[in-house]
Amino acid sequence: MLSISWATLVTLASLLLLINPIYSDYIIWAQQKALGQESSENITDKTTKRLDTIIELLEQGKQGNIIQLYLTIIVFMMGLAFVIFGLYIGQEHKLSSFTRRLYLIAYFALIVPITVILVRYIAIALSSGSLDDPVLLVALLLIIPVTASYVLMIVKSRHDILGQS
After folding, report:
1. pLDDT tens, position by position, 86-134
2. What pLDDT score was predicted for residue 151?
């Protein structure tokens, strides 16, 4: 039989415990080298860049949703203003002077904020030099019906003034 002393066993166990981590570190290093894996710093940098890109895309999506909401509100307000204008023109001969004023106040309460929003956006976009902005094109197109509504109201009020004299 083989007789081994306790001291020898403890020494062998200690050596095995010391060799095992060194050997496993060597295996990990060899695998990384064989697979061409990058260091953890490079992986962290790439992950940070990807997360920054995702955050930027989410912010752009949020900005697009806000612009879409503003355009929807503007178009709705313009449609409502034209409905009020049509009702005013269609029932003008039946309306009292108080009701006429209410129609005109409602009409201008819708058109004036739209005009301010559009002119402000156009001025900011042109001053910042973002001429390729697709929303700028929409804002410029929306100026046409807003201007037409002011022209219609001016013509209508002049017609009323000339008709009364």
Report:
1. 777 777 777 777 877 787 788 888 888 888 888 998 898 899 888 887 7
2. 86
Helix, coil or strand: residue 38? coil
The rounded radius of gyration (Å) of the Cα atoms in the chain is 38
* Tokens read off for 17: 């415990």
The number of angstroms, rounded, from the C-alpha of 147 to the middle of its chain's C-alpha atoms is: 28
For the chain, what are the domain ranges?
60-164
Say which residue the tokens 């022209």 belong to. 151
The residue among 42, 45, 41, 115 whose CA lies nearest residue 77 is: 115
C-alpha span between 25 and 54 (Å, rounded): 35
Residue count of the chain, please give it.
165
Report the range out of 22-26, 42-46, 138-142, 152-156 with the highest average pLDDT: 138-142
Rounded Cα distance, 163 and 7, in Å: 122
pTM confidence score: 0.54
What distances in angstroms separate CA 79 from CA 47, 75, 107, one per listed residue? 48, 6, 11
Residue recorded with tokens 């409602």: 106
Under DSSP, the state recorded for 4 is -
| CA–CA separation, 110 and 84 (whole Å) | 10
Please tell me whether residue 143 adopts helix, strand or coil conformation.
helix
Provide the 8-state DSSP code for 93: G
